[in-house]
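Why show two proteins at once? Because comparison is the fastest way to build intuition. When a single record is shown, students tend to memorize it. When two are placed side by side, the eye starts asking what differs. So, the first record is below.
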Amino acid sequence: MKSDKVMVIGGGLAGCEAAFKLASMGVPVELVEMRPLKKTAAHKTGYLGELVCSNSLKSEEITTAQGVLKQEMRKLNSLILRVADQCRVPAGSALAVDREIMGQLITEIVSSHPLVDVVVREIKTLPESGITVVATGPLTSETFSVSLASLTGEQHLYFFDAVAPIIAADSLDMNKIYQGSRYGKGDGHYLNCPLNQEEYELFHEALLMADSIPIADIDEGLYFSACTPIEVMARKGRDTLRFGPMRPVGLPHPQTGEVPYAVVQLRYENREGTMVSPVGFQTRMRWGEQERVLRLIPGLEKAEFLRLGVMHRNTYINSPRVLDATLQYRGRPDLFFAGQLTGVEGYMESAATGIVAGLNAARRYLGKDLVVLPAETLIGSLCRFISDPQNSNFQPMNANFGLLPPLANRIRNKRERYMQLGERSQRQINEFSEAFVN
């Protein structure tokens, strides 16, 4: 017997995409979110779809995996990208947003949909029956985590995620900072703090000596790879940062033409340009240490920190053991999972799995066969990866071209190869969309 509504647990990016997809297909939804009734270690508001780690949704270039992923999601009528387009801020070739406006818009659109009932309460145990999409995210509450662990029969895997600080733009010393995007991509909206060798070595040494917040039972091999704390990277070698987030290549000084020894890039956090954050500078240094160490960067000597970095535990299930590529739970056909809880990395990846889970939950509600996206698409390949039973050493995965089947003809030029992979993806997602979405 068909239940009256599909329950979506979690109002993050994945949960909102799932709920919106269900409602768009004529299926009534109960979207349950515990915030602001119960807060998490990283969220600051009660908005649906709040961005926590960064305001960047990454590249839109079609020669990048992130750009291709966005093309696929737009073809599947992504709510998150539709909203992101309305509240974007300058970020070169990347799609960055004003987080406050984005949260407001997502909340307004989802809450006002006639088929979506948004309920603020904490779900402590899984419903025993009824079509359900679980999208509680990496900050799943402890009580609900126990329920999930009981369902899967296995201990949850976990990793640790760090958040970058935010700085008041008017506290920057613009005499030492210059504008420009790496390799001239986009309109040069990044701010660049150049360091000479002496300044870099002083900064590196300060990171090594900085006092960080200890986290019980931490395994530093389990960091969310895109959010590895800057001080952890510094311990890997003196030049690790220069080949990572502080890589100066493609950023010559506009006046001298000289390429600095190292560069810290700052990205705008809002439309007004009043807030910036250092790119790739997630940290778990103690707050006083963050201010002391980051003010060693040229241009940040008098930085006013609007938010300091924090670190929190992220939880995800062992998806290859329990999920199919439809994101359906193998032991219970009315249960679907989406978002970072499934072991995908990143904002867009989480949202994309929300679309897939919502689509298949709707099809089950409507009595239709479930669908798997083509392997030649990034969304399809990502769902296959996280559900592959042969994946015995499962770690979170982001969208990348390595997940896709190779082209029939070998192409050595990387840009051309990526372009053709993207074009093949576009053909496949168009066919899928015509058959199952539009």
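Second record. Ask yourself what differs from the first in the token line.
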Amino acid sequence: MTLDEKNEIQTLFERKNGLAELSKILTADNADLYEKLVKDMGETSTKFQNWWDRMADKYKWESAKNGNWEINFDTCEIFLVCGTECNCNK
């Protein structure tokens, strides 16, 4: 993975987390700001998932049912994380 690719997903990850934190304190009382937050969360989540889909296709990452990829931002290592219902080789 390139440094630019890592930086792209790290920016999206941080934005997604920041929006999630903001959603905990923002109420629907401020309708305009609330709608903007909801829209931004949707767009950011879509970009986040599209990045993983593009990289998985580009790098031919292994996948597993009920599994998901994670990244170590320090090393750029991608690893497959499996839940209890997942049958992947670790």
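One difference worth noting in the second protein: The chain has a mean pLDDT of 91.
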